[in-house]
Amino acid sequence: MTTQHHDDPHRLASAEIVVGTDGSEAADLAVRWAAETAAQRRRRLRIVHGLDLAAGSDYGMYDVIMPPVIDAIRREGADLMRTARRLAHQVDPGLIVETELSEADPAHLLIELSEAAHLVAIGTAGSGGYLSHLGSTLLAVASHGRGPIVVVRDTGTEQQTRRVGPVVLGADGGPVSAAAVGAAFAEASERRTRLVAVHAWSDLYYDRFAGLPYAVSDHDAETAGQAILAEQLTGWQEKYPDVQVIRKVYLSGPRQALREWSRSAQLLVVGSRGRGGFRGLLLGSTSNALVQTAHCPVMVVHPAAA
Question: Residues near 61 by Cβ (< 8 Å), separated by ≥ 6?
Fold first, then answer.
């Protein structure tokens, strides 16, 4: 049963699970993932599609040329909504599903809804390693949304939406990471699985330390990392006594460690920005890399005051 959290709008019982769709295979996967999550948590599912009609207003003769095109866009959008609703009800025929076809830009629509949503899900495809491989909508929502934003990635298995394995948390000890810690514990509790808390002492690649005269040893990194994890996890294990926590510390390479864990995880949880992240950054380098290359869905958590 959903627990009320009066100080967090994303945890209220009334908070919906929101998913954006554009009719692509990646979006269909996100709809199924969101429907499974909504059914398990007894929450309403809202499926949305932004038509972005204002984009055509910058071109000439809008009133003369655009109406037939706009009508076709609206019909196509309505078809997308009907298909997405069917997908959700294939997961659970009793699921409460609402659809929203908006004239707004899809990124702005999802960012606005993220203010009060339990979480916002959006799909992506491919395994590219460059920013250009991310759609502009996905990048905008993952960067500027509020609360938890889940980038639903294909697990590469027949099951696609993996529901076994641990929740894996990337904890760097920074203030933005603190919001991710709470979200990771809540997810592990909801999913009745263990939580793996991963910390890397440095963002550098391991081989950068080779040959340095004052290189940090694995023992030093382990000691410092365990202390950081202990501080960042303080209080949360008492709040979620049902969650078994496994702590993993690495000398360097957080992206590589978390990507490897994503092969068996059902969800990765990271903060929106890294250690002491600058507000001007869209995403921290680790979060950015993982939403493009992880082998499972990635939850990017934004702090309340971000």
Answer: none
Q: Parallel, antiparallel, or unpaired for β 119-123 and 167-170?
A: unpaired
The partner residues of 13 in beta bridges, in order of sequence, read: none
| Chain segment 159-213, per-residue pLDDT in tens | 567 789 999 999 887 776 788 999 999 999 999 999 999 988 766 554 554 554 4
Going from the C-alpha of 20 to that of each of 75, 156, 216, 237, 266, the distances in angstroms are: 17, 21, 45, 33, 20
- Evaluated on CA atoms 286, 290, 45, 161, the torsion sign reads negative
* Nearest-angstrom CA–CA distance, 202 and 89: 45
Q: Which residue has the tokens 């980038």?
A: 151
Dihedral of CA 52/57/59/65: which sign?
A: positive
In 3-state terms, what secondary structure has residue 270?
A: strand
Beta strand pairing status for 167-170 and 148-152?
unpaired
Across the beta sheet with 17-20, the strand order is 97-102, 45-50, 17-20, 119-123, 148-152, 298-301, 267-271, 167-170, 195-202, 245-252
| Sheet strands (E) in the chain | 17-20, 45-50, 97-102, 119-123, 148-152, 167-170, 195-202, 245-252, 267-271, 298-301
Nearest one of 248, 216, 213, 256 to 229, comparing CA atoms: 248
* Pairing of β 298-301 and β 148-152: antiparallel
Pair of tokens at residue 135: 């759609």
- DSSP conformation letters of 226-251: HHHHHHHHTTHHHH-TT--EEEEEEE
Q: Which residues pair with 199 in a beta bridge?
A: 249
**pLDDT one-digit tens code per residue, 36-46:** 999 999 999 99
User: What are the angstrom distances between the C-alpha of 254 and each of 155, 183, 261?
Assistant: 20, 19, 11
